[in-house]
Specification:
Blueprint lengths: L4 E3 L1 H14 L2 E5 L9 E5 L9 E7 L8 E6 H7 L3 E8 L13 E8 L26 E5 L2 E7 L12 E7 L2
Parallel strand pairs: 1-6, 2-5
Antiparallel strand pairs: 2-3, 4-5, 6-7, 8-9, 9-10
Pfam family, one: DUF779
């Protein structure tokens, strides 16, 4: 299924910086209103989560000793559960409640649909041999004392000749 939440390198770098300034961190994916549905970064435990929130990930960030939890409200997750989320950073001022606001950067969640695994196809049987080239308008051969001649007859698929060729057999001498 893959990770529900991932980080871009820029987001990981900002998290390391914020961790150095504020200690352990957490995210809560906002549902809108004044913070514009941005992921909000707080000191761990400062934003109270409860039974109406879902822990989507405990993110491992190089250079940060503890995992960074990523939460979302259960109601919002119901709407987004078919997506995967990537936390990124863009220039601009974040919400006044999120720790990155004074940095001139803001966290941004990018959502995308996961790519389905390509179907596993059964092995293909060998291709059938190519059909023989149609015979020339008249072919003949001798089988013992039988002379066999093939000549064009009715169109292919007709009741008279399903292949479009008729055979004449005569006794040779």
């Amino acid at each position: 299924m893959g990770d529900l939440v991932t980080l871009t390198p820029a987001a990981a770098e900002l998290i390391r910086s914020l961790r150095g300034q504020h200690g352990p961190l957490m995210f809560h994916q906002s549902g809108g209103c004044c913070d514009g549905s941005a992921p909000m970064c707080y000191p761990a435990g400062e934003f109270r989560t409860g039974s109406s929130d879902v822990l989507l990930a405990s993110l491992s960030v190089d250079g940060v000793d503890e995992p960074v939890e990523f939460w979302i409200s259960a109601a919002q997750w119901e709407l987004w559960k078919h997506t995967r989320l990537t936390v990124d950073v863009v220039p601009g001022r974040g919400s006044g409640f999120s720790l990155e606001a004074p940095e001139g950067l803001r966290f941004l969640t990018r959502s995308h649909l996961p790519q389905p695994s390509p179907p596993t196809l059964p092995p293909h049987p060998p291709s059938p041999p190519s059909p023989p080239s149609p015979p020339s308008p008249r072919r003949s051969c001798t089988l013992g004392r039988l002379d066999v001649a093939f000549t064009p007859s009715a169109p292919q698929g007709s009741a008279r000749s399903p292949r479009g060729w008729g055979a004449g057999v005569g006794v040779g001498g």
